[in-house]
Every structure is written in C-alpha cells, then in structure tokens.
Design brief:
This is Reverse transcriptase zinc-binding domain-containing protein. The structure is a single chain. This protein is 52% helix and 1% strand. By secondary structure, it is mostly helical. It has two domains: 34 residues, no CATH class; 233 residues, no CATH class. A two-stranded antiparallel ribbon has the order 1-2. Strand 1 and strand 2 form a beta hairpin. The site of zinc ion has 7 residues, from loops.
Amino acid sequence: MKRTEQLAKAAISSLRPSRTDLENIDGPDAPGIRLTDVTQGSAYRAFLALQNVPERQGTIINVGRTRAALAEINGVWPSTRDVWDALRSLDLSRPVREFLWRLTHNVPKVGKYWLNISNYEHRSECQPCEVLESMDHILFECDAEGQGLIWQEAKDLWSRTGRPWPEVSLGAVIGCGLIVIRDERGKAIPGAARLLKIIISEAAFLIWKIRCERVIGNGNDPEKALSEVEISNRFRAAIQKRLKIDTMLTSKRKFKQRAIPTKILRATWEDVLFPNGGAPERWWSRPELLVSMWPPRPRGRER
Ligand SMILES: [Zn+2]
C-alpha cells in the first residue's frame, strides 16, 4: 500500500502539461493522453484509429483461407507463421509483395466496403457484371477484360513445364510462395515452385492493376477497354521483366550476398525457356536469347 502511494505521488509530481498529438495516432499503440487535452472530436478520431476490429477479422479469415488452400494443394497444413513468412519472400518483386500483403489484410476497398458509405454505394458493384464486387470476383470471376485471359496465359506458360496447374483461389494467391512441387518420386523441386510463385503472383497483381485502371482510371468506359492482345502482352512483359531481373541478380559483383546463384536461375527458368532441353551455355548472359520467351504472333491476327 505504501509503495502504491509512493508510486502515485511520483506519478503526480512528474506530470507536466503536455499536448498529445492525436492526429498521428496509428493503430493500437496509441500513446497515453491527458484527459484535459481531449476534445470530443479528438477522442472520436483516436477511437476510430483504435478500431481495427473488422480489418483484423478480415486478416484472420484470409490467413485461414490461405492455410486451407495450401492444405488442399500440398496435402499438409502450413502454420500461420509460414503464411506470414512466405509473404516476405524476396523471390517476389516489391510491388507484388505489397499487393499480397494488402490482399491478406483486406486493405483494397472493394464491394461491401462501399455499401456503408452514403452516396458511394454504387462503387460496391462490378459494373460490367452487375454483381457485388469482391476480391474473389475480381481475381477469378469477372467477365470484364483481364482475369480469364491472364490466367489462361499463366497456365499456358506453366504448361511448358509439363506439370499440372494447381487449383488457384484467393488463398492460393496469398500463399503462392508455399506451394510445393514434387517430382514423380515425391522429391520437392524448388526451382519449379519458385517459377510457379512468380507466375501466380504476377498474374494476380496484373489482374488487379488492370481492374483498377478500368474502374478508377477509365471510369468503366468500354471504349477504353484493352484488347486481348494488349492484355496478353502486359502479362508477357511482366514475366519477361522478372526473367530479366533474375538474370541481372546473378551478378555477385553487383549484388554481393543478395545475388542469386545461377543454379537457382536455371532451375527456375530453363523448363519454360527451353522446354525441349538443350539450354545453351550461359544463356543468361546472352541478351539475344532472352528477347522474348514467346514466338512472334502471326501477322493479321491482332485481335
Ligand atoms: Zn465483374
């Protein structure tokens, strides 16, 4: 009791008038605030900042969906920790990592989010399909240009490896870094898994980007819709860019510890670059071999 009194006295004597900046409160780690500093408005803002319950709920659901999707694909449940670790994989480009992180936390404002915002309810709908929009709808169901074609491109590219395409869902996209590919004897093939991770994440990210360009950039104007060739080209360019970055990252001189071993580069790309075998010597240092992974399109078939 005595100690409590001492502590209380010490606390009172150390109180100095201070103004707490409530504008910058971010998340649950709000600093303590003096009651005399609190106005109704600032208290409300602080309260809103602390209210991250719906977002957390969304995160829990998405991590659960990811674990379930991976259990289906791999036959083993990954831990929650595995899911978070995979999101930090340096095999993914930074924008893709950020996109997957936002996806996991349900950050993108789509669908239901807008139903509660007066005068913006119309934004909850996918205009071409006339249904409530959701991340699942955008990534896997939408009839607007993009989604179907990009997944087809992704599957076509992967089919060069001769391996089956997994069941891709929102959970599989978030957890694409955890998919295990095995050979006939059950041995894991990390190079193939790395390629699949790149293909799935780049495809999902591009679908999301094209959806945002259509809805936010072009106001759903059908006149501005991308052609099929343009969409395919966007996917191919994204993958081609990843290949180029990978080949550059093999330079130990430039990237030191961050450099990737040529063994990993070869294990990732040779199956799709040279599906019939016979990869040329040191192909990664020969830019003329990497102009395009895809044969040129026949003329006159632009759409
Ligand atoms: Zn749609």
